[in-house]
């Protein structure tokens, strides 16, 4: 099973330079510790949260300072990209890393980012599909032409070509109806949870795999789960370290969802408003009843084994600093414990 960490490059009071220094130190530790992948967020216009607005730039820097670890984007917000530029930049990262890029793609639910970029959120689904189609064409063909709703060009060959024949693409599932769509398309799926139990996610994954098989794809489809997690020497220590940051994370997500609900409106807005209300009142004990894994290596390993078995996962992305307010030294310790005491229990 693939083990990775989801990394937001959290902002720190000491300034952006220190934020980048600490974030890269965690990447270096993941490389040394034998972790399979480091996954980079894409976050815009939230300086109190993160300095990671340009994940492919950071991926290039990681490629230059590592030799082994896979470099994942979780996720590139496709509707905000020009597909030809994205194809070239992603291929460049794949070349510099000698084939270690995994491109996760999604639409994001932060409507205000779309407004800042001048892209109507209502177009996000159609833009996503068009850009993904062009991206794959640009990586695998020469002299391509395209006449779509949003993009038109004639006889274009992007350069460089990827190091891999085609870098793997994983698609984030943003709603219940997207799971079978991704399965039918034959793509691996990202499942990102905040607090939901496995029983909530299981039927969605089942719908994904049923659509995969119905479309005639070989195998059963790969599922990768991103979840808030934190490891310390004891359960009590883990809770003391992580609880304030986790609750801050929920409150911040509630504010984002509430803001997006007011901008999007309609049934989507109502769903997000309900999610915001739920997250705004979330308690630590409620979160831990879901798939939020915070505890000792033994506790986290046992709960993770149950989840992996129930959902038949192919990999996990542990968000080791949910909320971004856990001290850097403590996050480094959590990563070391994951690499030394959690990950080995799922090998061999």
Care to describe what's here?
The protein has 348 residues and is α/β, with parallel strands linked by helices. The protein contains twelve helices and eleven strands. It has helices at residues 16-33, 55-65, 83-96, 111-117, 124-140, 178-185, 198-214, 235-264, 266-280, 284-288, 297-311, 328-342, and strands at residues 2-7, 37-40, 70-77, 101-106, 144-147, 152-156, 169-172, 189-192, 223-231, 293-295, 315-319. An eight-stranded parallel barrel has the order 1-2-3-4-7-8-9-11, surrounded by eight helices. Strand 3, helix 3 and strand 4 (101-106) form a beta-alpha-beta unit. Helix 3 packs across helix 5 (124-140) and helix 8 runs antiparallel to helix 9 (266-280). It is globular and about 60 Å long. The N and C termini lie close together (9 Å).
């Amino acid at each position: 099973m693939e083990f990775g960490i989801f990394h937001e490059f959290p902002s720190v009071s000491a300034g952006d330079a220190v934020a980048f220094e600490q974030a890269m130190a965690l990447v270096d530790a993941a490389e040394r510790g034998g972790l399979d992948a480091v996954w980079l967020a894409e976050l815009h216009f939230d300086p109190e949260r993160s300095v990671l607005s340009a994940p492919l730039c950071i991926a290039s820097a990681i490629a230059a300072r590592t030799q082994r670890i896979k470099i994942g984007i979780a996720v590139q917000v496709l509707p905000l990209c020009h597909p030809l530029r994205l194809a070239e930049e992603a291929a460049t990262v794949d070349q510099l890393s000698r084939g270690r890029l995994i491109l996760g793609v999604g639409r994001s639910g932060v409507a205000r980012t779309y407004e800042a970029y001048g892209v109507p959120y209502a177009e996000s689904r159609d833009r996503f599909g068009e850009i993904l189609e062009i991206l794959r064409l640009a990586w695998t063909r020469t002299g391509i032409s395209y006449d779509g709703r949003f993009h038109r060009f004639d006889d274009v060959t992007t350069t460089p070509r990827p190091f891999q024949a085609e870098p793997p693409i994983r698609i984030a599932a943003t709603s219940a109806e997207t799971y079978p769509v991704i399965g039918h398309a034959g793509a691996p799926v990202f499942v990102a949870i905040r607090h939901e139990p496995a029983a909530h996610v299981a039927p969605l994954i089942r719908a994904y795999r049923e659509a995969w098989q119905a479309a005639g794809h070989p195998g059963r489809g790969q599922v990768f789960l991103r979840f808030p997690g934190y490891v310390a020497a004891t359960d009590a220590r883990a809770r003391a370290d992580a609880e304030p940051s986790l609750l801050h994370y929920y409150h911040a997500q509630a504010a984002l969802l509430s803001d997006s609900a007011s901008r999007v409106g309609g049934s989507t807005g109502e769903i997000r408003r309900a999610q915001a209300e739920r997250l705004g009142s979330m308690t630590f004990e409620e979160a831990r009843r879901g798939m939020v894994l915070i505890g000792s290596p033994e506790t986290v390993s046992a709960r993770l084994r149950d989840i992996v078995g129930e959902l038949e996962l192919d990999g996990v992305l542990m968000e080791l600093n949910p909320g971004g307010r856990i001290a850097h030294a403590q996050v480094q310790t959590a990563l070391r414990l994951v690499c030394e005491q959690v990950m080995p229990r799922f090998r061999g």
